[in-house]
Structure formats: structure tokens, C-alpha cells
Write a structure and sequence with these properties.
Radius of gyration: 43 Å
Oligomer: single chain
Number of helices: 53
Number of strands: 13
Length: about 1300
């Protein structure tokens, strides 16, 4: 070679300029110099001289210009391959474009020329990322394959075409099939030579094409095929062949994808092994050395994420840093190497945390630099933007709370949104971007408390998981992220399905995490937190034990040097503290305190503003406060207050936890005030509660908790107006807290947090002498669910006449929103999730539709609260009496057609009322509990008369200006609020004479709106003149698991009383479905059965029917929801519920909601519902029912038609008559018992029980000066005669 070059130089030197041989000698000299440059240690003078001689040949040439241009282009290309200078590549492309003009299709040089031009344009595209370059490259590569002279040439050209098509696919997400077709054809043409290195390279290229299609479509078969082809290509190539590094690189990328998709550690280890070989094969001064360094560093970083081995991440940072160092700024690969190094630094920061803050700062700096160098457009831009968002979010998340500003987080979200826009069609990339954006939106929610960010975060995280296969490496992490956000939603909205899904998701995340994975600890911690949230809702200690178990495992698997160690200590400590609060086990509080102090010691080296420190201090304060409550040590509460004050100061003002911690601090200060009566404690408590209340972005329940404290504490300080404002604003917040998007059970829980709020607001407003405003807030703040159910039955027939389309839209949305969501749906989980996600949208659409209706002329009051005039109209037939009993005062609000007045009840205090509540006695009752808490003993009823009802009687009689016809007793509708919600006002009596029943015919209603609704049902009844009314009697003589009832006898009594007035129908021992099918055709429905009022979940209250089960008859529940949704077809008139506790709410925190069986029948359209406030004796039930229908028929016109007054009067008459009958029956039985002959027919135990119950009943209803009182004393004397003084005293 050297001699040939010297000979050519001599020949050129002695050749005349006009000699035709000069051009050929110049061309050959240039080619030989470039060949020597490629094959021997590079002498830069060789390539420079080659370019000079080739350029001279071009300038001198007139006949073979095209060939000379080819030679010049080749020299530029050779120098580009050596130095990677893009100017040489651009020169090569420019010269070859000129050559194409001179080399026609018939020329044998053209196929090679256009092929080389396609190759160079492909390389230039990777440097400049100009779309026109890759399009031109594909055009010339396609021409080359068409012009190829033989199969060998065609195979190589097809390979080049496939490579260019891959480049286009990566940029434009185009169809990968043309690239795969070209590469497969290249493989077919070399099928005869399996040892051809080009065949191995083509096989590797085809594997890359399958990998790219997997990234686009997500088909795992493509990924497996990519691994297979890459592995075969590697087997077919010699270790010392130049193609081996390319094949190893291609296979490494594919193996990393397989690792991410399946979590197979073997794939990652194989990729690392291949990258190490590439680095060994790549010389230190080779242009690809930075690539080899970065690839190995990236793979080691992947392994570090799984194992947490420090040596891997340290080596990864060293390798990627070296790659950046070796790569000039002009190199198009430098942005990629910068991003690789930034990724390694941020991975180390995740573990080391604030111990190495420079890592994340440097990572962000490098990512910004990568974006600057990449420019726009650039194929890496989407990835770089996503990574910048991740790293900014990471720095924000671990920045000390008081220093964390919105800039990092806002920029992170902006970067990720832009990345999502650029990657919307790319399957695997898009899933990662969605997850990352969901994470940052979750942080934004935690910063601002705005629920829109949380909702969007959850949707993004769901979408990411939908795009991810079940074995994806990151699936466990993404499940963890979704679970955390779902638990956040539960904490904000009390939406229990979200919590249950969050727990399931967290469990799946833990199950998908290998035992040696560094992320197992945090995922166990999230699972523990989810179980703790469930415990807060249920109070079930088993849930708390699960939380502790998960938190303990989390601590065990987390290395002591790990950044999450302090969080793990805090989590376990807090849960143990909660268990101590529940069970007061000393070992729990001792371990809890030890763990939290260990966490604080770990945090000492961090910034004082570290957000973990605030959490640890808050946990410590809660545990000290819990110990103070259990042990009474004053030092504990003082230390708790100091720690919590610091925790509050360290929590950013807009952070959702700020309000929660302010509330807890307020509780601690209040405890201190109650113990010391030091006013400074009260001042501090009010300040803390006010801060929580004024945190507008806080979780609503935290604000409501603060408000409930403030309305009671501020008046103590004389700040009544401020307390009133807080109470009113809190009630106005109610619709956003108890949204219809929640399940019924969740709504009940949210409403329980408002327990007493409306009553307190009423008291404060009455103190300001605003009775109408007080009544309005009582109506707005109580019976929320009941009111909505009544609204759902609203008649829109008039609207249909005016705007049928709008009416249909309202009915469709109303039906969708009011239909209950099933708790579980094993057959179609996806459909259930879709329905749950759809519910908030439907609620918003319904609200918008209602506003449209209100915008129509004449419909502005549609579904609005009653006006004062409408309330007064409801009392046209009597007086509505609202009794409001609170901590501050007690009042009666009297509503009549002449106005609204308030009367203070100074002797009726809440504490005395609670103390006065008595308990019922065991007996044969129609409920499912042996003993129910009911206020009906004599001292209570006498107290109720003297301190409450007596004054109301005087007020009504004194101010009634509309005299009733002679013989008619005035009507009163009672509404008890709060504690007074269980008061039996109709049974109040005096020891010295006077009782409610002698003055009023009493009825009860949950709210005035409910009364208005019932009255509207009367006017909507659809009955034809002369048509016989019908009565349906449902009887349950026997019920599985319950005492038998005299239901058949009750049915016979009813039929006897109603003969000729009502068309009878009966159902004995029916199913709930049979009853629901039969009710719509009846005017009157009567139930003689057992009833159950659920003490925890009022919506589960029900009447007990029966159905066939797998092992025989079982109870079938006719529950509130089924009754309320019942279509009554306009015939409904009376529902008589001869069962226990059908008008009772046993869940004390929901007593104001009026959710009971009677109100459910009221909602379904029955204007009159007769229920019971307590347990009722079976015999008495039978007799009262018979007497009621006798009186009803006697009061009517003989056709079953009656006025509303007739119904109330009939019940009033029946109860009074039963009083008188009990006495005579017992005298007869007692005489028979004393007779020696008849004694054998009398059950002594039953007789004793009847005496006890009758005397108890007389105790309630008999006036001391009345004949009934004398009768009662006779019975007491007879009881003493029969069984002695001891028995008399026990009864």
C-alpha cells in the first residue's frame, strides 16, 4: 500500500495538467490514501491529502466528473467516521448529491452511489433531526434496492433501507411493517450463508424492529421475538467482529425492556454482562466509547433501583460522568449521556435523600443542559421533558417544608404535560409519562388541597396501569402510586370504595415486589397507612393490627441507612400509639415512644425544616397526649403541646396536614384548659381551631371539626357573632362534603361529622333574635339525604309541557344519580369502576340541569328550600313545634299560619335531658333486640312535661286566634332536634295533672320540608270517584331467629274493622320482592312483623320478611332504600308499621337525618305513616291496630276516603282506648288465677309479665287525679296480694 501510494504521487507529479491520465491518477491517489487511513494507525495528513487530491480531480475533470465526486465524497465520509465531525458528513452528502446528477440509472456506479447517499443522509438525520433528511434517505435507499445488480448487493441495501425506516418510525411513530419487510427480505437473500456477518447484523436489526413495534403496540410477543432474534444474532457473530458491539447494544436495549416488562432479573444481568463486553471491545479513543460507558452506567442504575447496592450506583455515576466528559458539546449523543448521568444521580438521591442534596441539583442541571443541546424538535425531547419533571418533583418532595415553593412542582407538571403531548401514541413511553404526571399532580394536591389535581392524578395513574402488562417491572411502583392517591381521596371525601380499592391496590403492589427489592419497605408502609385509614373509619381493632403488621415489616426490610428509615419509624410509632389509645397497653406506648425518638434522632442531621421532622413531632405529640388522657400526667400534655406547635410551624400553610395538625393542637390546648381553667389555654385552642377553619384548601372534615369546636368555644369568650358566622358557613359547606357522588353509607358518615351543627347554629341565631333565620338553617342542615330523596320524587309533568327535552334530561340524570351503586360486583369489576367514576360527572350534570330549569320563567324556586310563607302554609291545620336543645340554650320554635315565634325553655338543658333518658324493659316486643334505650319512664315524662311541653301548650292556647269546631282537638307536628330528636313529646305528663294527649293530637315529622312533601302527596293521589279503596296486610307470624307474633290475629282484627270500607288483600310470610310488587296497587299497607333499626348504619334498618335459602327459610330484609325507591302509582295513603322502632334512629350522630323505616315509606309517597319510637308489646300492637281501623272507618264516609285529620285522630282515639282496656282484662285473669279450679289454666309467669307491663304503661299515661291513676293503684295492690312486696318492688 505504501509503495503504491508513493508511485501514484510520483505519477501525479510528472503528469501534465492537460494529460487525460491526470484525472484517473488523482482519483486513484485519493482512494488509496483514504484506504490507508482507514486500515492503519491514522495519519491525519493521509486523509487531508486524500481530500485535496480528490477535490483537484473534481476541479480538473470534464469527462468522469461523477466518479471523481464519488471519490471526494468517500474521503469526507472516511474522515467523518474517524472524527465524528458533522461538517465532514454534510460535505459528503453535498458532494454525493452532485454526483447523482452525473451518474445516470444505467451507470453501474449509481446503485452504490445512491445507497451511500441514503446511508449518509440517515446519519445526518441523527445529527440534525431534520425530517427532510430521513425522507430523502429512504428515497435513495429505496432506489438502491431497486437498482441492485445482484442479491448480495441487494441484501446490504435492503438492510440500509430497513435502518432508515426504523429511524423514521422512531421519530414519527409510523408503521413499522415496511422496515420489517425490508430487513426480512435482506435475511432471505443471505439465507444460504449463515456465517455472513451482515446476516447477523440484519437479524439484530429485525429484532430492533420487533422491539419498536412492541413499544408502539404493547404486544409481548414482539418483545419475546426481539430477544430471540437479538440472541441468535449474537451467537452468529464472532467476538472480534466490528458488528458485535452493535448487536450487543441492540440486544441490551431489548433485554432492558424485557426486564421492565416482566421484572426478570436475569434479563437485566444479561444486559449488564453484554454492556461490559461492549466496553471491553471499545477502545479508549474510539468515538463509541462514551456510548459504551453510558449504556453500562444506565444498566447498573437499573440494578441499583432493585437491589439498593451502593457500589452499583456509584459505578454508574462514574461511568456516565466519564461518557459526558469524553463527548464534545457538538456531539448529538451528548444530551443522551447527560440524561443518563442525571438519572443515576437522581436514583442515588432517592435513597440517600437530603444527605446528598447536591445530587438532585446536579441531576436537574444536567437535564436542563440536555434539553438545551437537544433543541426542538428532537426524538429525545419527550423523554428529557419527562425526566426533568420527575427530577423536579423529586426535589420538591424532599425539600424542607418551609422552603418548598411551587416553582419546582409547577415546572415539573408543565414539563410532563408537554412530554405527554409529544408521546401520546407511544405505548410504553406513554405509560411512564402518565404515571410520572399522576405523581406530580398528587404532590400538587398535597400542596394546594385542590381536589381537581387529585382527581386528575388518579385518572392519569389508572391510564398508566391500563397501558401496562401484568408483569411490567414498574407495575408494582405504579400500583403503589395509585393506591396512595386513592387513600388521599378517601381522606378528603370519605369515599370508602376508594379506600377499599386503595387497600387492594397496595396489596397487589406488595405482592408484585420481590423480597429483596429496595422498594418493598415503602410499599408495605403505604399498605399499613391504608389499613390505618380503614381503622379510623370502622374502629375495628383488627384493621389497626393489620396496619401495625405491615408497618413493622416495612421497618424490618428497610436498611438503617436508607432515606425512608425515618418515615418507617414514624409510621409504626403512630400506629402503636393509636392502639394504645384503644387498649391502653403499656408495651404499645413504650415501643411507640422509643421508635419516634429514634426517628427524631435520625432526622437531627437533616435540615430542621425537613418535612419528616414535622410528621415525627406530630406523632410524638399525639402519643404524649394519649398517655396524658390515660395517666393524667400534666407534664405529658405540656410537652405534647410544645411538639405539636413546632410541627404546625414546620407544615406549609396550604398543606392539607396543616389544618389537621392545628385541630390536634387545639384539642391539646383545650384539654389543658379543662384541667387548669387557665384562659390562655382557651385562647390558644380557639386560635388553632380558627387557623384550621380558615384553611380553605384543607380537607373539609378537618374544617368541619374545627367549626364544631368553635361554635361552642367562641361564645364562652363573648365572641357570639363570630361563632354564628362560622356555624352558618359550615352548614353552607355541607353540599360539598356530603356529595351525591358518595355511596349512601359514606354520606351517612360525612353527615355524622355535622352532628349538632344545625342545632348549634339555631341556638346562636335565636340568641340574636332571628327565629326565621334559625329555622332556615335547621332545615338546610338536617335530613339532607331525606330531602334529596323527596326531591327525586318531584313531579315535573308541568315542565314536560313547557320543555320536554329538558324534563327528560333531568329525569335521566336524577335516576342515574339516585340509583344505588353496588358495593361489589365480582362479575364485572371494570363496569363497577366505570360507574363509580361516572357518578361525579352525573352529579355535576344534574346540578347544571337543575340550574337550567331554575333559569326558566316560573321555575326559579325549583327544588329550593321552603320559604317562610311556605313553612307557615304547612301549619294551616295546626302548629309545628320545633324543639332545639343544645349546650348553650333550649328553645321551641312555633310555626303557625299566623307566623313564626320562638320561646326559650330555660329549664331544659342538654345535660339534664341526656341524664333523664331512661331504658326500656325486656318483654315480648316486635324488634330484634332484647333491650332498647328509650325515654319513657315516669320521671323523664314528668320532666319533659314540666320543663318543655307545658309551656308550649300555654303558648299555643294563648296565641291561637282560629277557634276549632267544638269537640275537635288541636293538631301539633313535633320536630325534635339533636338530643330532643328522641323525645316522646306526645307522652309527656304531669304528676299533678295535665298531659300532651289531652291537649293535642300529635304527629311527628323530621323537617318542615318533609311535612310539605307529605301534604303534596295528598293532592297528587290518583283515585277514581266511587272506586273501592284497598288495604294490603303483610303478616309474619313466624320469623327465623325471632319470637313468634300474633300477626294472624292482627290481620283478622283489621279485616273485621275494615269490612265494607276497604278491599282486603293479604300476604303471609312473603319475600321482600313479593311485597314490593304488591304495594303499588294498595291505598293502605299494614305490616305486622318484626322491625330492626340499625344502630350503626340507619340505611340498613329494615322490616324482617322471609325467603327460601340453601338450608331452609332465612330472613329477607325489606330495607329503607328499597322502600324509598318504590313506585306507588299515586294510590298511596296510609302505611301502618306495626313493628318496633320503625320511626327510631338509634345511631345518635345521625338522629337529625331522620333515616328510618317510617320516613322511607313517606318518601315513597305515603302521606301518612304510622310507626313506633320504641319497642312495642305484641298484644298491644294487635289491639291498637284493630281500634285504629275501627276509628278510621267510623270517621270516614264509608268509602275509604278520609281527611288527613281523620288518620291522626283515629290513632289518637285508639291509644286512649287501649289505656282503659288493660285494667279490666287483668282483673279477670287475676280472679281466675286465685280460683282453685281455674288456676291450672293460667300461666303464672305470663300473668306476672302482663301485670308489670300494664302498670308500667299506666305509669306513663295516667294522671294522678284521673280514674286511670286509681285503676293503676288497684292493680299495684292486687299485684302485692298475689306475689308479695318483693315482687312489687322488682317491678
Amino acid at each position: 500500500m505504501d509503495q503504491t501510494i508513493e508511485d501514484l504521487k510520483i505519477a501525479v507529479r510528472f503528469t501534465e495538467d492537460n494529460d487525460p491520465a491526470l484525472i484517473g491518477r488523482l482519483y486513484n491517489l485519493g482512494r488509496k490514501l483514504s484506504h490507508r487511513y482507514e486500515r492503519t494507525p491514522r495519519d491525519e495528513e493521509d486523509i487531508a491529502e486524500s481530500i485535496r487530491q480528490a477535490a483537484r480531480a473534481v476541479s480538473e475533470c470534464y469527462t468522469i466528473l461523477g466518479k471523481c465526486l464519488i471519490g471526494l465524497a468517500l474521503s469526507f465520509a472516511v474522515r467523518y467516521n474517524a472524527h465524528d465531525d458533522v461538517q465532514d458528513l454534510e460535505q459528503a452528502v453535498q458532494v454525493r448529491r452532485q454526483a447523482v446528477k452525473y451518474i445516470t440509472e444505467g451507470d453501474s456506479c449509481r446503485p452504490g452511489l445512491v445507497n451511500d447517499l441514503g446511508v449518509d443522509l440517515g446519519k445526518l438525520y441523527e445529527r440534525k433531526w431534520r425530517v427532510e433528511d430521513i425522507e430523502e434517505a429512504i428515497r435513495y435507499s429505496s432506489e438502491a434496492t431497486r437498482l441492485a445488480r445482484n442479491d448480495a448487493d441487494r441484501a446490504g441495501m435492503l438492510s440500509n433501507l430497513g435502518t432508515n425506516l426504523i429511524r423514521k418510525h422512531e421519530r414519527m411513530d409510523s408503521d413499522p411493517r415496511p422496515a420489517m419487510k425490508a430487513t426480512r427480505e435482506a435475511l432471505r437473500l443471505t439465507d444460504h450463508n449463515h456465517h455472513d456477518p451482515t446476516r447477523a447484523l440484519n437479524m439484530s436489526t429485525l429484532g430492533v424492529e420487533h422491539r419498536l413495534r412492541y413499544q408502539q403496540k404493547g404486544n409481548e410477543q414482539d418483545l419475546n421475538e426481539a430477544v430471540r432474534l437479538g440472541s441468535r444474532a449474537l451467537e452468529a457473530i464472532q467476538r472480534d467482529h466490528p458488528y458485535r458491539t452493535t448487536i450487543l447494544n441492540n440486544l441490551g436495549h431489548t433485554l432492558i425492556l424485557q426486564y421492565e416488562a416482566t421484572g426478570r432479573r436475569e434479563a437485566l444481568d444479561q444486559a449488564i454482562q453484554g454492556a461490559e463486553e461492549v466496553l471491553d471491545l471499545t477502545a479508549a479513543n474510539h468515538p463509541c466509547r462514551p456510548w459504551a460507558l453510558s449504556e453500562l452506567g444506565s444498566y447498573l442504575s437499573h440494578r441499583y433501583e432493585g437491589t439498593g447496592a451502593p457500589r452499583d450506583i456509584d459505578e454508574a455515576i462514574r461511568l456516565t460522568g466519564k461518557a459526558v466528559e469524553l463527548t464534545p458539546e457538538s456531539d448529538p449523543k451528548r444530551p443522551m449521556w447527560l440524561d443518563y448521568q442525571a438519572g443515576c444521580l437522581s436514583d442515588r438521591y432517592k435513597t440517600v435523600g437530603t444527605a446528598s442534596p447536591q445530587d438532585i441539583d446536579r441531576a436537574i442541571e444536567l437535564t436542563r443542559e440536555a434539553l438545551r443541546l437537544a433543541g426542538d424538535p428532537h426524538p429525545l425531547r419527550a423523554t428529557l421533558l419527562s425526566n426533568l419533571g420527575i427530577r423536579l418533583g423529586l426535589r420538591y418532595d424532599k425539600t424542607p417544608a418551609t422552603l418548598a415553593g411551587p416553582d419546582d412542582l409547577d415546572e415539573a407538571i408543565h414539563s410532563l404535560r408537554e412530554s405527554l403531548r409529544l408521546t401520546r401514541k407511544k405505548h410504553t413511553i406513554m405509560a411512564g409519562v402518565l404515571n410520572n404526571l399522576g405523581n406530580q399532580l398528587g404532590h400538587q394536591y398535597q400542596r394546594t388541597g385542590e381536589p381537581r389535581y387529585l382527581d386528575e392524578a388518579i385518572q392519569m395513574l389508572r391510564d398508566a396501569l391500563d397501558l401496562t402488562g401484568p408483569r411490567h417491572k414498574d407495575r408494582a411502583m405504579w400500583l403503589q402510586n395509585l393506591g396512595s392517591r386513592l387513600c388521599d381521596r378517601f381522606r378528603r371525601t370519605a369515599e370508602r370504595p376508594s379506600l377499599e380499592e386503595g387497600i387492594l391496590t397496595a396489596q397487589q403492589s406488595v405482592e408484585a415486589t420481590p423480597p429483596d427489592d429496595a422498594e418493598l419497605g415503602p410499599r408495605l408502609g403505604n399498605l399499613g397507612n391504608a389499613f390505618e385509614a380503614l381503622y379510623e373509619r370502622t374502629g375495628d381493632l383488627e384493621d389497626l393490627d393489620k396496619a401495625i403488621q405491615a408497618a413493622r415489616r416495612s421497618l424490618e426490610v428497610t436498611p438503617k441507612a436508607h432515606a425512608n428509615r425515618g418515615k418507617c419509624l414514624n409510621n409504626l410509632s403512630g400506629k402503636l400509639g393509636r392502639r394504645f389509645d384503644h387498649s391502653e397497653q403499656e408495651r404499645d406506648i413504650e415501643e411507640a415512644m422509643r421508635l419516634v425518638h429514634e426517628g427524631l434522632q435520625l432526622a437531627q442531621g437533616d435540615s430542621p425544616d425537613n418535612p419528616l421532622r414535622a410528621s415525627l413531632l406530630s406523632t410524638l405529640a399525639a402519643e404524649l397526649s394519649g398517655r396524658y388522657k390515660a395517666k393524667g400526667r400534666r407534664g405529658d400534655i405540656e410537652e405534647a403541646i410544645r411538639n405539636m406547635q413546632e410541627a404546625v410551624l414546620l407544615t406549609p400553610t396550604r398543606h392539607p396536614d396543616r389544618a389537621a395538625r392545628s385541630n390536634i393542637l387545639g384539642n391539646m390546648l383545650l384539654s389543658q384548659y379543662e384541667a387548669t381553667t387557665n384562659s390562655s389555654g382557651l385562647d390558644g385552642a380557639c386560635r388553632s381551631y380558627l387557623e384550621a377553619w380558615n384553611s380553605l384548601n384543607a380537607i373539609p372534615f378537618h374544617r368541619v371539626a374545627a367549626a364544631s369546636r368553635l361554635v361552642r368555644l367562641l361564645p364562652i369568650q363573648g365572641r357570639v357573632e363570630e361563632a354564628t358566622r362560622v356555624a352558618k358557613e359550615a352548614i353552607r359547606l355541607l353540599p360539598t362534603v356530603s356529595t351525591r357522588a358518595l355511596t349512601l353509607e359514606d354520606r351517612q358518615w360525612t353527615l355524622s361529622t355535622y352532628s349538632g351543627m344545625a342545632a348549634d347554629a339555631c341556638s346562636l341565631l335565636l340568641e340574636a333574635d332571628e327565629p326565621e333565620e334559625a329555622l332556615r338553617y335547621l332545615e338546610d342542615g338536617r335530613a339532607v339525604i331525606l330531602s334529596e330523596r323527596m326531591n327525586d320524587r318531584n313531579d315535573v309533568s308541568e315542565l314536560k309541557e313547557q320543555d320536554a327535552k329538558l324534563a327528560r334530561q333531568y329525569e335521566r340524570l336524577r335516576d342515574e344519580v339516585s340509583s344505588p351503586l353496588p358495593e361489589t360486583d365480582e362479575d364485572d369489576v371494570k363496569m363497577l369502576q366505570m360507574r363509580r367514576r361516572r357518578r361525579p360527572e352525573a352529579v355535576a350534570e344534574l346540578d347544571s340541569c337543575i340550574e337550567k330549569i331554575r333559569g326558566r320563567k316560573g321555575w326559579s324556586h325549583f327544588l329550593c328550600a321552603l320559604t317562610v310563607a311556605e313553612m307557615e302554609q304547612c301549619a294551616a291545620e295546626g302548629t309545628i313545634v320545633v324543639i332545639n336543645v343544645t349546650f348553650r340554650r333550649s328553645d321551641a320554635i312555633l310555626v303557625s299560619s299566623s307566623g313564626i315565634v320562638a320561646r326559650q325553655l330555660p329549664d331544659l338543658f342538654q345535660s339534664e335531658a341526656v341524664q333523664a333518658l331512661g331504658k326500656g324493659r325486656k318483654g315480648i316486643f316486635r324488634d330484634t333486640e332484647s333491650e332498647a334505650e328509650i325515654p319513657r319512664d315516669v320521671p323523664f315524662l314528668e320532666w319533659l312535661w314540666s320543663d318543655c311541653v307545658k309551656g308550649i301548650v300555654e303558648e299555643i292556647e294563648e296565641n291561637t286566634h282560629r277557634p276549632l269546631p267544638q269537640g275537635l282537638t288541636p293538631r301539633v307536628w313535633w320536630i325534635g332536634v339533636g338530643t330532643a330528636g328522641v323525645f316522646p313529646f306526645h307522652a309527656a305528663r304531669s304528676a299533678s295533672g295535665g298531659d300532651t294527649m289531652s291537649h293535642f293530637i300529635s304527629s311527628y315529622t323530621p323537617t318542615i320540608k318533609a311535612l310539605s312533601y307529605s301534604k303534596s302527596q295528598v293532592s297528587r293521589r290518583d283515585t277514581s270517584p266511587g272506586e273501592e279503596a284497598s288495604i294490603l296486610v303483610v303478616t309474619m307470624p313466624t320469623t327465623p331467629g325471632q319470637r313468634p307474633l300474633s300477626a294472624d290475629r292482627e290481620r283478622d282484627e283489621i279485616n273485621k274493622a275494615c269490612r265494607g270500607a276497604y278491599r282486603p288483600a293479604s300476604l303471609e310470610c312473603p319475600t321482600a320482592s313479593e311485597v314490593l310488587e304488591s304495594i303499588p296497587g294498595a291505598d293502605v299497607v299494614h305490616f305486622a312483623c318484626h322491625g330492626s333499626s340499625d344502630s350503626k348504619n340507619p340505611s340498613e334498618s329494615h322490616l324482617l320478611l322471609v325467603k327460601e335459602g340453601e338450608t331452609g327459610r332465612v330472613v329477607d330484609r325489606l330495607d329503607i332504600s328499597s322502600i324509598a325507591r318504590l313506585p306507588t302509582l299515586g294510590r298511596a295513603w296510609i302505611a301502618y308499621l306495626s313493628a318496633c322502632s320503625t320511626a327510631e334512629v338509634k345511631a345518635k350522630s345521625l338522629v337529625d337525618e331522620g333515616l328510618h323505616i317510617s320516613s322511607a315509606f313517606q318518601v315513597s309517597g305515603f302521606p301518612h305513616v304510622i310507626g313506633t319510637l320504641w319497642s312495642v308489646a305484641d298484644d298491644v300492637s294487635v289491639r291498637v291496630a284493630g281500634l285504629f281501623y275501627q276509628a278510621l272507618v267510623a270517621n270516614g264516609d264509608g268509602t275509604g276516603e278520609h281527611t288527613s285529620r281523620d288518620v291522626a285522630a283515629a290513632l289518637h282515639t285508639a291509644v286512649i282506648k287501649v289505656r282503659k282496656e288493660q285494667w279490666g282484662n287483668l282483673l279477670t285473669l287475676a280472679a281466675a288465677f286465685k280460683d282453685p279450679v281455674l288456676n291450672q289454666y293460667i300461666d303464672e309467669g305470663l300473668l306476672k309479665d302482663l301485670f308489670a307491663k300494664t302498670i308500667s304503661f299506666f305509669n306513663i299515661i295516667a294522671h294522678p287525679s284521673s280514674a286511670l291513676s286509681i285503676d293503676m293503684r288497684i292493680l299495684e295492690g292486687l299485684q302485692h296480694q298475689l306475689w308479695g312486696a318483693e315482687q312489687h318492688r322488682r317491678n
